[in-house]
Amino acid sequence: MTSIPTITLNNGVEIPQLGFGVYQVEPDQTKDATLTALEVGYRHIDTAQMYGNEAGVGEALRESGIDRSEIFVTSKLNNGFHRRDDALKAFDGTLDALKADFVDLFLIHWPLPTTDVDYLETWKALEEIYATGRAKAIGVSNFQQAHLQRLLDEADVVPAVNQIEVHPYLANDSLRLFGVEHGIHTEAWSPIAQGKVLEDPTLVEIAERVGKSTAQVTLRWHVQRGDIVFPKSVTRSRVEENFALFDFELSDVDVAAITDLDKGERTGPDPDTFDYIPS
Ligand code: NDP
C-alpha cells in the first residue's frame, strides 16, 4: 500500500500529510464515506463539531478494525463555544460523539474577531485540554497573521497548525510563510477549491503532460509546497484518485506556474469578518 509521508508538528506529534476531509458529508453518509477512505488507505480524518458528523467518523474508526493509534483524527471547536467553560464542555462533546478518549488534534475553527468573544480566552481553554493529554496537539483554523501574533505574544503554547483556505486561486503565501517562521504548520482547506480550479487551462495542460488528473496535479502541488491536505469526496473513484499522489512529481517550473495562478479568490468566508454563530 502507498505510504503517505508524515509531518512532525512543533510538539513532536506526527501527522500524515494527506488526509480525508468530511465537510459537507451528510451525517448518515459519514460512516460509509470514512470507511471507504480508510479502506483506500487514508489514515487521517478531518472533521469538526460544525459538520455534525463526528459520530459517523467515530463509528467508522471502530468498524474499520484498524488500531486507533494508526489513525490521526482532527476535530474543531464550533463557533458559539468560545468562552472557556463552553469550550471545555464542547470538547467533551467531541469525545462523546467520537466515543473516544482523545483526539490527535483539536482546533479553534474560526477566530470570530468581530464578535464579543475573545479567541485568546478560547485558546487558553484549548491549552487546558492539551495539558490533560486528551488532545495530542492543538491548533487554530482561519487565523490571520494578527491573530497568530497575539497568541505568540500572550499564550503559552504555540499552535501546531493553522488550517486555512489554500488552493491555486488563493496561494495564501504570506500567511503560510509566517507559519513557517513560527513553527505553525499550514493545513490547506478546500485544496481543489471545491472543484472550481479543475478546468483551469494551466492545470489541464500540466495534467495532460504528466498523465494525471487536474485534481491530482493540484493536490501534488500542495504536497510539494509542504502543506497538509485532506480533500473531501463521497465518490469512491475520486477518493482513490486523490490518494494516488506519490508516484509522480511536478517540476519546479510547474509548481511555480500553479502558484502564479493565485488571484486572491476565496471559495469560503473571509476570516476577518466571518461572525457566523449557529443558533
Ligand atoms: P475540496 O477542495 O476538497 O473539494 C471537494 C469537492 O470536490 C466535492 O464537491 C467533491 O465532490 C469534489 N471532488 C473531490 N475530489 C475530486 C476529484 N478528484 N475530481 C473531481 N471532483 C472532486 O473541498 P472541501 O471544502 O470539502 O475541503 C476539504 C476539507 O477541508 C473539508 O472536507 C474539511 O475537512 C476542510 N475544510 C475546513 C474548513 C475550515 O474552515 N477549517 C473550511 C472548508 C473545508 P464529491 O464529494 O461529490 O465526489
Give the helix/strand layout.
Blueprint (H helix, E strand, L loop, with lengths): L5 E3 L5 E3 L3 E2 L5 H14 L3 E3 L7 H11 L7 E6 L6 H15 L4 E6 L10 H14 L2 E7 L3 H10 L6 E5 L7 H10 L2 E5 L11 H10 L3 H12 L2 E2 L6 H8 L8 H8 L20
Parallel strand pairs: 3-4, 4-5, 5-6, 6-7, 7-8, 8-9, 9-10
Antiparallel strand pairs: 1-2
Helix pairs in contact: 1-2, 1-9, 2-3, 3-4, 7-8
Bound molecules: NADPH dihydro-nicotinamide-adenine-dinucleotide phosphate.
Description of the molecule:
It contains ten helices and ten strands. With 279 residues, it is an alpha/beta fold. The chain has a single domain, classed as NADP-dependent oxidoreductase domain (TIM Barrel). Helix 6 links the parallel strand 8 and strand 9. Helix 1 (27-40) packs across helix 9. The longest helix is centred in the first third of the chain and has 15 residues, at 84-98. The termini are far apart. The mean pLDDT is 98. NADPH dihydro-nicotinamide-adenine-dinucleotide phosphate is lined by residues 21-24, 46, 109, 141-142, 163, 189-195, 198, 213, 215, 230-235, 238, 241-242, 268.
